[in-house]
Recover the amino acids of this structure.
């Protein structure tokens, strides 16, 4: 396995080094907490970050598999279209914003505005999320295993929000629906695949009350 | 709904087709965006049911097969009734009935400070002699991103089409803009509504996807917009153009995101934007993934990285605090900054925001130029003036005030056939420019309209050439505020230009930008 030490590298050098060495074998990256936008727009390959990660990790990801063994900064997997981003620790503000596809797994907690304007990705937070999670979601799934903060799933348009714990307050244009068998099967498959311990039966499902929540 | 209440509408009942064939023709009722006409179902006569709603666009006059409609301005009464004009009364009634605020399209109407009270001073004996427009050359090229990226954008004329999204505009109108850009060597912009696939090759002048058949010389550029709604954005989208524009705001509704009402969210638009058919697509007003200026710097860094350091990065600003905003864009790493004045157009915006928010274009340019000068990057980081630029004269004035290029947004729509009915948000545009309906779009032929747009740019660049050369310059880069004079105190006060007759700027401009001015000291 190839290892890149990012201590002296900036974004351009590091990402160019990653693009050159992606060839099926995973690449390890060390000391990358100062790099914002690591693996931006990567189309394939597997990258393991052996330290904390900076902001915008896996931004515009188009098919790469990115794993962070410690905590990540803000905007994890921003605007992803495919691929997977896994954070073993906690993630800061804005996980999985504007995503069109792919999967994001945070094994710790995530900050505010998680999954904002999600347009098709599956975002799994094994811990708690902050306020305003799932704001203006248009498609895809947001799965929170712990608790959520204020204004959860505010102005949901389409897509599903699942939560195992409690929320402080729920946003506009939401309604709570019972879990169907398909939902349970989907959740347990995802949990099994990502090795997350949770019981799908206790989850609540939130969907949009209307597809046209604004003034017209 | 845009209420003006300042027009008298009359249908000549004798020559109207319904005089001989009652109930036969309802063209005016069909094309009128504001419901001025109704066909009387009892006697088959065309009735002017609601003349207060007329905005004077004269679309009905253009479409009427019998030429039976007359529209006359009723301004004397409009002014004597001020401030309780028909417009105000209708607006209050509308709000009282519906509980809704007014939304409308296009842009600001009424008087705002503009380029009209600025005049161009020609060369005579004391300065360099004028150059001969007919027999000498004038360099109007604008190179964006020369030092910072591998593939700079080289505009053949100092113009761009500003960002207008697919969704707000029809696919055909987007294609026409791309063809117009390809024929004149300027840049078109995807806007925030994702890429119309045809744009990518039409803008470069190719008639086919494989880029083999170059139909239009010299070939233009495609600017890819990266916006707050992030509709249809992926790594492939970013690399399909020649430049990336980071939208911060726009002139018609600074501080608000894009509005696309449900009437225009059809199947095609829904596929790009991911919003259900018929549901409003309201973009966020800010980037959810930017909280600080440092984040913006990181964003520019990864945008450069994703596009492989090939493309220049543009910023687009609304009109708010031009000095500080432009300074922030320079710090974030912009190669070009578009600044959009309050007269800038829009597909849909709350009426009060279009009319009453932001500062005029002429007041945006001097502080923006000062910021560029304070950072030592004037003419290196290019400044593009947008908002209410109507012709080569306005563009020349903007460039002499310190901009490097100008953009025609509303003027481009008008060149495509628009008659300014302020109803873009309804999606019933009879010319197929801002409509998503098949029947309307069929009226707009992209190639023919592309030629009209190219003609417009040719005419405007000739105008800029005339003015540049008569003021004694060989290149638009040599223009300076010395080539302009303000003709009234207001304009001189807003712009810092020399007041004609007085031959100096107004005294308080000597220390302008000094107190809060030096951005490096912040």
């Amino acid at each position: 396995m190839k290892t890149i030490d990012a201590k002296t590298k900036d974004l351009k050098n590091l990402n160019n080094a990653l693009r050159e060495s992606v060839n099926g074998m995973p690449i390890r990256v060390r000391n990358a907490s100062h790099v914002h936008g690591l693996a931006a727009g990567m189309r394939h390959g597997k990258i393991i970050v052996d330290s904390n990660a900076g902001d915008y990790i896996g931004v515009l990801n188009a098919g790469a598999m990115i794993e962070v063994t410690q905590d990540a900064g803000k905007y994890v997997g921003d605007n992803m279209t495919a691929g997977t981003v896994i954070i073993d620790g906690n993630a800061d503000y804005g996980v999985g914003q504007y995503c069109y596809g792919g999967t994001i797994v945070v094994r710790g907690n995530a900050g505010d505005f998680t999954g904002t304007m999600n347009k098709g990705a599956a975002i799994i937070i094994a811990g708690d999320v902050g306020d305003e999670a799932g704001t203006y979601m248009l498609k895809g799934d947001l799965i929170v295993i712990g608790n959520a903060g204020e204004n959860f799933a505010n102005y949901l348009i389409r897509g599903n929000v699942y939560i195992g714990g409690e929320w402080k307050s729920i946003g506009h244009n939401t309604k709570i629906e019972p879990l169907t068998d398909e939902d349970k099967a989907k959740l347990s498959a995802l949990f099994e695949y990502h090795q997350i311990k949770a019981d799908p039966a206790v989850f609540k499902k939130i969907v949009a009350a209307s597809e046209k929540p604004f003034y017209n | 709904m845009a209420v003006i209440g300042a027009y008298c509408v009359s249908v000549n009942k004798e020559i109207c087709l319904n005089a001989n064939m009652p109930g036969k023709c309802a063209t005016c009722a069909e094309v009128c965006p504001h419901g001025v006409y109704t066909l009387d179902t009892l006697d088959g006569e065309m009735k002017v049911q609601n003349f207060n709603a007329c905005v004077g666009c004269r679309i009905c006059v253009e479409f009427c097969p019998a030429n039976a409609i007359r529209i006359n301005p009723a301004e004397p009464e409009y002014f004597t009734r001020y401030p309780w004009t028909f417009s105000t009364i209708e607006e209050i009634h509308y709000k009282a009935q519906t509980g809704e605020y007014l939304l409308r399209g296009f842009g600001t109407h009424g008087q705002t400070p503009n380029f009209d009270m600025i005049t161009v001073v020609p060369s005579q004996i004391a300065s360099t002699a004028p150059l001969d427009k007919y027999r000498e050359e004038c360099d109007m090229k604008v190179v964006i991103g020369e030092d910072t990226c591998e593939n700079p954008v080289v505009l053949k004329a100092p113009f761009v089409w500003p960002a207008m999204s697919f969704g707000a505009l029809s696919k055909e109108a987007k294609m026409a803009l791309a063809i117009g850009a390809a024929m004149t060597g300027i840049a078109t912009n995807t806007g925030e509504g994702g890429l119309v696939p045809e744009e990518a090759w039409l803008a470069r002048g190719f008639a086919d996807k494989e880029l083999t058949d170059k139909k239009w010389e010299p070939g233009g550029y495609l600017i890819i917009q990266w916006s707050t709604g992030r509709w249809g954005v992926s790594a492939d989208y970013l690399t399909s153009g020649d430049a990336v524009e980071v939208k911060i705001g726009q002139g018609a509704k600074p501080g608000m995101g894009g509005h696309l009402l449900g009437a225009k969210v059809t199947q095609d638009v829904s596929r790009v934007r991911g919003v259900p058919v018929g549901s409003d697509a309201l973009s966020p007003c800010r980037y959810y993934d930017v909280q600080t200026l440092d984040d913006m710097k990181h964003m520019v860094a990864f945008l450069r990285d994703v596009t492989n350091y090939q493309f220049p990065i543009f910023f687009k600003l609304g009109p708010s605090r031009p000095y500080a905003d432009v300074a922030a864009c320079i710090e974030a790493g912009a190669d070009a900054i578009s600044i959009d004045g309050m007269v800038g157009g829009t597909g849909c915006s709350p009426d009060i925001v279009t009319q009453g928010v932001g500062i005029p274009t002429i007041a945006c340019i001097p502080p923006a130029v000062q910021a560029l000068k304070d950072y030592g990057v004037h003419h290196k980081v290019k400044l593009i003036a947008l908002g209410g630029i109507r012709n080569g004269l306005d563009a020349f004035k903007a460039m002499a005030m310190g901009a490097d290029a100008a953009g025609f947004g509303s003027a481009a729509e008008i060149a495509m056939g628009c008659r300014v009915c302020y109803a873009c948000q309804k999606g019933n545009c009879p010319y197929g420019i801002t409509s998503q309906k098949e029947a309307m779009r069929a009226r707009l032929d992209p190639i023919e309209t592309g030629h009209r747009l190219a003609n417009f740019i040719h005419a405007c660049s000739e105008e800029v050439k005339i003015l540049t050369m008569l003021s004694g310059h060989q290149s638009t880069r040599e223009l300076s505020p010395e080539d302009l004079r303000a003709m009234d105190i207001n304009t001189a006060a807003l712009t810092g230009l020399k007041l004609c007759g007085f031959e100096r700027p107004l005294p308080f401009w000597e220390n302008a930008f000094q107190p809060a001015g030096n951005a490096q000291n912040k």
Notes: Residues 7-100 of chain B form a domain with the Alpha-Beta Plaits fold (CATH 3.30.70.20). Residues 517-522 of chain B have pLDDT under 50 and may be disordered.
